Amino acid sequence: MRAHSTTVDPKCDILFLPDGVLGAGEAMRRREFISFVGSTAVAWPLAARAQQSERARRIGVLCPFADDDVDAKTWFGAFQQGLHALGWEQGQNIRIEYRWAAGDQTRRASYAVELARGGFDLLFVVGGAELAELRRQTATIPIVFVQVSDPVKLGIITNLAHPGNNITGYVGAEHSIGAKWLSLLKDTAPIVSRVAVIFDPQNPSMPPYLEAIKTAAPSFGISLTLADVRNATDIERAITPFAQHPNGGMIVLPNAVTQLHRDLIIGLAAQYKLPAIYSYRLFTRSGGFISYGVDLADQYRQAASYVDLILKGAKAGDLPVQLPTKYELIVNLKTAKALGLTIPEAFLQTADEVIE
Questions:
Q1: What count of Cα atoms within 13 Å lies in the side-chain half-sphere of residue 186?
Q2: Which domain holds residue 107?
Q3: Which of 153, 167, 242, 256 is the most exposed, having the fewest neighbouring CB atoms within 10 Å of its CB?
Q4: Contact status, residue 164 vs residue 142, Cβ threshold 8 Å
Q5: Other C-beta atoms within 10 Å of 345: how many?
């Protein structure tokens, strides 16, 4: 009896038998063979689908910072740490691609188009202007945002609990915080009666902040100077003439322009001895007077949980937008001393951090 051999095609993992092997009287083996081929044909697509589901998910990031911003790198590091804790590893099962707009409106718009058309599974966006730009470009790709103030007032969503559509995220600050900034500035620098509000007019988050500050200013006996700035030249042109008159102070609103040029703003405040309040600790740690706002690293880390849920099948519009639950107050005593200010002990006791 001639020996027969069997072969396996390495490309499809299906067994082939030479002609004549399944002869008469081998019905049982024929049925077994057909059953084997059938089960293999079913199993192969399932295996292929499983392999496809394990592909690396692509996350596109649009942010207003420069690519050499050390603080921004720290926040995004916290974001990736949050993802790591949930089982997502950069370069393995996720690929995160960053677009750094560096406060440039043209670049921001171009990157938004690029990300919307780039085949990403999810978009992570920082800032109100960036979110508005992405929203114009896509209504289908899930978007998770951070550092956006009151998206309902901005017209991004209609409801915090059920944002709907493709957008959800974490609010950086509610606009009512504007009154709190005025109060803290007056508590620490009672002599201040004139305040310059430094803001970026191209950022849609700014008008509601300004309205809250305008409403509160009379109760503190403060007159306001609204200083719209787009670049370093604007900042110098706004602050220098303002500082020529006494009893001045500043509120520096949270936006890409003020963050990009924070060293310039802090330097001018020191040069002209202007007490200033900022929205984030990075300003006080760089020499600013006081800051009051959310812990950004913590917020970026928390945002990773929404990215995880969406990549696992949740709809962005079903996830409620999260409001800040804690603000941190940071005081730089070295700067206070240089300004000739003595901070009341009771005030220091309420601070989350005092920089000596």
A1: 18
A2: 57-172+296-318
A3: 153
A4: no
A5: 7
